[in-house]
């Protein structure tokens, strides 16, 4: 089976074009090929599918085989694949996702793709829609959460997938490997959560590290960067346009006041194409 391998800020994905390839179990295939010893290696698998609501449909599965509603770094790679591998002539197109129909737009200079800007739609802030237990339809801003006996303040945002944003003094020093799994599976989150640990450098710059639902520590998280941008505004810490510095690179996030849409801009690169026995 043919596949292509992509990365956006070091968040890496196996991409399978289901217009050409047949996968009978998306979850099992993702678990198999994401393994960095027995498979191709990756933080997840992106499946390219037809849609009757949009130009294309993207489904994203984590390394543990769980399906996520959306993937920000993934949709940039997805968009780049569609353009570079000739599935569309358009520079902007609609993609059906679990977070609704989203619009990636390729950024081109002299015919070369320099990045992708994605309209990620509106953030979801009502507790029970994120979902987070115990807040009804209220927002979850600087609310208490206790993990391994330690109290934290969380601000929760959904970008189609759930995010728990924790502002910390030193993102580099935060024990993300020791605590990430306990946040991910905390009983407050019926569908688990991605957790972002964020150090505010100034009103336009933050440093963020992430423990992703279903994938553990990754070098970057696009939806998590969007959630970070929204949480920064909600808590009064940052402006509506912010640069998010991740382990694997930088993303620009803007929560547009007029449309209430979040825009994310960043790179998407092909690493290699290949064949895998399947
Ligand atoms: N692990 C995430 C999906 C991938 C999101 C992330 N890689 C991104 O770039 O948004 C979840 O289960 O919600």
Automatic annotation (TrEMBL):
One cellular-component annotation, GO: cytosol
Pathway: Amino-acid biosynthesis; L-lysine biosynthesis via DAP pathway; DL-2,6-diaminopimelate from LL-2,6-diaminopimelate: step 1/1
Record field: catalytic activity: (2S,6S)-2,6-diaminopimelate = meso-2,6-diaminopimelate
Family matches, as InterPro entries: DAP_epimerase_AS, DAP_epimerase_DapF
EC number: 5.1.1.7
GO function terms (MF aspect): diaminopimelate epimerase activity
Subcellular location: Cytoplasm
An annotated GO BP: lysine biosynthetic process via diaminopimelate
Group of enzyme by EC: isomerase
Alphabetically ordered keywords of this record: Amino-acid biosynthesis, Cytoplasm, Isomerase, Lysine biosynthesis
Binding site for substrate: 11, 62, 72-73, 161, 194, 212-213, 222-223
Active site: 71, 221
Site entry (Could be important to modulate the pK values of the two catalytic cysteine residues), positions: 163, 212
Subunit structure: Homodimer.
Annotated family: Belongs to the diaminopimelate epimerase family.
PANTHER family reported in the protein's UniProt record: DIAMINOPIMELATE EPIMERASE, DIAMINOPIMELATE EPIMERASE, CHLOROPLASTIC
Function according to Swiss-Prot or TrEMBL: Catalyzes the stereoinversion of LL-2,6-diaminopimelate (L,L-DAP) to meso-diaminopimelate (meso-DAP), a precursor of L-lysine and an essential component of the bacterial peptidoglycan.
Protein name per UniProt: Diaminopimelate epimerase
Organism of this sequence: Mitsuokella jalaludinii
């Amino acid at each position: 089976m043919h596949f292509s391998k992509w990365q956006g800020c070091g968040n890496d994905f196996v991409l399978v074009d289901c217009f050409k390839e047949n996968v009978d179990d998306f979850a099992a295939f993702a678990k198999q090929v994401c393994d960095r010893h027995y498979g191709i290696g990756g933080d997840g698998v992106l499946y390219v599918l037809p849609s009757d609501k949009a130009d294309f449909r993207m489904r994203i599965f984590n390394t543990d085989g769980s399906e996520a509603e959306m993937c920000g770094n993934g949709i940039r790679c997805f968009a780049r694949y569609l353009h570079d591998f000739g599935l569309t002539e358009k520079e902007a197109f609609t993609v059906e996702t679990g977070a609704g129909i989203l619009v990636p737009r390729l950024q081109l200079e002299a015919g070369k793709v320099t990045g992708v800007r994605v309209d990620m739609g509106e953030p979801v802030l009502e507790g029970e829609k994120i979902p987070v237990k115990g807040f009804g339809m209220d927002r979850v801003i600087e609310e208490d959460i206790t993990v391994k006996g330690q109290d934290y303040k969380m601000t929760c945002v959904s970008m189609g997938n759930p995010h728990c944003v924790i502002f910390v003094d030193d993102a580099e020093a935060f024990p993300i490997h020791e605590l990430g799994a306990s946040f991910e599976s905390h009983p407050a989150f019926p569908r688990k959560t991605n957790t972002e640990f964020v150090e505010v450098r100034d009103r336009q710059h933050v440093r963020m590290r992430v423990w992703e639902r279903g994938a553990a520590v990754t070098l970057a998280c696009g939806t998590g960067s969007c959630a970070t941008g929204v949480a920064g505004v909600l808590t009064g810490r940052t402006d509506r346009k912010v640069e998010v510095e991740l382990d694997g690179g930088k993303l620009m996030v803007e929560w547009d006041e007029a449309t209430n849409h979040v825009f994310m801009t960043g790179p998407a690169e092909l690493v290699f194409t290949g064949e895998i026995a399947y």
